[in-house]
């Protein structure tokens, strides 16, 4: 368990609005978790963290896939960078691209069965990595920040 005594307070010093301060605390915690996850993603899936995010997005989307423009929008990535990532994933046999019917410029991307199998095999380890890292890096201030950003979560945890 990490020592959270030097973590910034969820209350802040009043310079930032509470919501912005809470968001910054959440970014710090999720950044630390992301760093831990990078190595496991590379070892288990042999892809970069950004490519992993694409795979996760496709795994939660419709089975027929998503348009490249939508993926770029949801991940906040430039289309040129995404094009490179999709090319790498396609080369690895993890995604398939196809033209969108009736739109000659539109491209849709979907997971291959190989990717689905890999994600299924690795998902337990990846989930455990995230849970352990959150337990290590998310102190009471970060949990308070999460509840400040999402009050319904705080209400649900009180009800349990």
UniProtKB/TrEMBL annotation:
The protein's name: MarR family transcriptional regulator
PROSITE patterns: HTH_MARR_2 (PS50995)
SMART domains named among the record's database cross-references: HTH_MARR
GO MF term (any one): DNA-binding transcription factor activity
Domain HTH marR-type: 19-155
Organism of derivation: Streptomyces griseorubiginosus
Gene Ontology biological-process entries: response to stress
Domain of life, per lineage: Bacteria
């Amino acid at each position: 368990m990490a020592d959270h005594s030097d973590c910034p307070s969820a209350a802040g010093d009043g310079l930032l609005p509470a919501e912005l301060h809470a968001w910054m605390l959440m970014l710090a915690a999720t950044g630390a978790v992301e760093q831990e996850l990078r190595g496991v993603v590379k070892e288990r899936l042999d892809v970069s963290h950004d490519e992993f995010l694409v795979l996760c997005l496709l795994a939660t989307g419709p089975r027929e896939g998503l348009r490249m423009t939508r993926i770029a929008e949801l991940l906040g990535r430039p289309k040129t960078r995404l094009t490179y990532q999709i090319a790498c994933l396609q080369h690895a046999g993890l995604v398939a691209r196809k033209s969108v019917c009736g739109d000659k410029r539109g491209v849709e991307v979907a997971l291959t069965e190989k990717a689905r199998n890999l994600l299924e095999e690795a998902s337990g380890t990846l989930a455990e990595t995230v849970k352990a890292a959150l337990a290590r890096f998310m102190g009471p201030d970060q949990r308070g920040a999460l509840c400040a950003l999402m009050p319904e979560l705080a209400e649900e945890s009180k009800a349990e």
